[in-house]
């Protein structure tokens, strides 16, 4: 029996990957780096920012350490994603509202900082649906480690077998699986074609994930 649903944030609830890509383009441009969207989709989409920074320093002649690049990106993130909410993924609101209508518990488990989730909660009215937000600020190890999902479960007072996770990226899927959760994947433009081995089901639209929940709630 499903007692709760844990949603990822970026790429699952909100359409933010395009903004994430754009931030990296702007940061790398002064170093003469033309960073392609294709490479971002293949290697960085859905991956925590500090891993992004490590990848970029390893693959490009950037005169910064990974920590320095990460700090630079954090400033840009706060200025952009920390102020204005990204658009909701189609079907996300309907899915969340349906879950709440079934008296299931809800939580967000994200590799982002809380400052990036706050605009979603406030500007899309999601505060009423999500009293539990497990984020990068709460754990030592980001996704694909299970820590953020385990933190969400602890706050919910549930165990992994009680819940289902909804994700959009292989990194998020690995995190959910490592925590022992079943995981539905809803692909987006930036995650299509990636390896989602181990997912309970893979969909192209959030409405399909909601329909799966409707059939499997008991």
TrEMBL record:
GO molecular function, one term: catalytic activity
Highest taxon above the source species: Bacteria
Keywords assigned by UniProt, alphabetized: Carbohydrate metabolism, Magnesium, Metal-binding
Record has Magnesium as a keyword: yes
Pfam families, per the entry: Hydrolase
Alphabetized InterPro entries for the sequence: Beta-PGM-like, HAD-like_sf, HAD-SF_hydro_IA, HAD_sf, PGP-like_dom2
SUPFAM superfamilies tied to this protein: HAD-like (SSF56784)
Cofactor field: Mg(2+)
Membership in a protein family: Belongs to the HAD-like hydrolase superfamily. CbbY/CbbZ/Gph/YieH family.
PANTHER family: 6-PHOSPHOGLUCONATE PHOSPHATASE, HEXITOL PHOSPHATASE B
Name of the protein this chain belongs to: HAD family phosphatase
């Amino acid at each position: 029996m499903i007692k709760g649903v844990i949603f990822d944030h970026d790429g699952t609830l909100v359409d933010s990957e395009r903004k994430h890509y754009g931030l990296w383009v702007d940061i790398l441009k002064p170093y003469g780096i033309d960073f392609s969207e294709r490479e971002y989709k293949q290697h960085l989409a859905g991956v925590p920012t500090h891993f992004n920074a490590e990848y970029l320093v390893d693959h490009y002649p950037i005169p910064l350490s990974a920590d320095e690049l990460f700090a630079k990106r954090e400033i840009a993130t706060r200025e952009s994603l920390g102020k204005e909410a990204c658009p909701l993924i189609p079907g996300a609101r309907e899915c969340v509202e349906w879950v709440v209508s079934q008296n299931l518990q809800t939580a967000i488990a994200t590799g982002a900082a809380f400052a990036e989730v706050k605009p979603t909660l406030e500007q899309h009215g999601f505060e009423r649906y999500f009293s539990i937000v497990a984020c990068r600020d709460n754990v030592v190890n980001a996704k694909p480690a299970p820590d953020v999902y385990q933190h969400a479960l602890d706050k919910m007072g549930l165990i992994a077998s009680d819940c289902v996770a909804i994700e959009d990226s292989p990194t998020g899927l690995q995190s959910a699986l490592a925590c022992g959760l079943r995981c539905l994947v809803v692909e987006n433009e930036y995650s299509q074609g990636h390896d989602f081995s181990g997912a309970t089901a893979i969909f192209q639209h959030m409405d399909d994930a909601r329909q799966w929940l409707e059939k499997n709630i008991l």
